[in-house]
Structures are given as C-alpha cells and as structure tokens.
Amino acid sequence: MTSILPDLLRPNLSVVFCGTAAGTVSAEAEAYYAHPHNKFWSIVHETGLTPVRLRPHEFRKLLDFKIGLTDLVKDAHGNDGVVRRATAADRAALRAKIETFKPSFLAFTSKNAGKQFLEGEVPLGSQAPIGGTKVFVLPSTSLAARWQWSQTFEHWHSFAQEVIRA
User: Fold this and answer.
1) 101 touches 9 (CB < 8 A)
2) 103 neighbors 133 (Cβ within 8 angstroms)
3) What distance in Å separates the CA atoms of residue 106 and residue 117, rounded to the nearest whole number?
4) How far apart are CA 109 and CA 140, in angstroms?
5) What Rg, from alpha-carbon coordinates, does the chain have?
6) With the CA atoms of 6, 43, 65 and 114 taken in that order, what torsion angle do they form, in degrees rounded to the nearest 10?
7) Three-class secondary structure of residue 103 per DSSP
8) pLDDT in tens, 14-45
9) CA dihedral defined by 22, 28, 33, 34, rounded to 10 degrees?
C-alpha cells in the first residue's frame, strides 16, 4: 500500500490527529490540511496546542509540539463524499499505530472519521479509550463543514484544554 501522506508518528506524543483521508488539495501539496479554507492550522494555534501558526507544508514541525498526524484511509484521497470507506484493515492499522506509539490522545478531525473507525454513529467528544489513549471525535475544520464552524471552535477549545491539562 502506498500512503498518500506520510504518518507523522513517534512515541510520547500528546495527541495524534486523524482525518478520514487526505483531501485532493492536500494530496497535491503533499501536506496535511492544505486547502486554503481548512481551519485546522489556525484552530490548532488558536487553542494553544501550538505556540505559532504553522502552514501546511510545515506539518512535520508538529512533532516539536508533541502532536502527530495520520489518516484512517491512507491509500486514497478526496473529500469524504468521494473517498472509499475505511475497511477492517484500515481500522486495524490505525489501532496498531495507536497501540504502538501510545499517544495520550487520539482525536478524529471529523465525525465521519470517528464514525468509520468506531463503526457507527458517534457523538462529538470523548469516546471509549484505546488502552491508555483517550479518544475524541471533533468537528471537521474543512470548508465543507463550514455550517458547523461555530460549534467546531467550542469543541476544539474544550479538547485542547484537556490535552494541555494532561
């Protein structure tokens, strides 16, 4: 399997953010959350998870702040309405990564990613842990989810406070 974007993982991370799959713009730019209207980079900074606002091509610098990145579907790209659904193998691969690297938190960056990994409807917020890793589902920061951005910021700020307190 060829990954569209490389995992950004190592032991002792505070949080790993996981999307469904790389978007088309991200795949072309070879950088996570690269669409100019995606709010990921601004919200990660605004919530205090990073002291500076990074640009998508600087995604590897997240490791300096104990933050990792991955996607549930590693071999496809596109928006959630186009990209294939996660398979049992995709779910097992992500679970193995979390069990290997043991971040304090795993945060899905959309309800769709959380729903596909957890195999059913999920509320935003805290989910059952994976070993010692706390699992959260956050609202999407993508342009397609702009209708929910007011609640997005509230959930992201609450989540960031949990990470900072841990």
Assistant:
1) yes
2) yes
3) 12
4) 5
5) 14
6) -50
7) coil
8) 999 999 999 999 999 999 999 999 999 999 99
9) -170
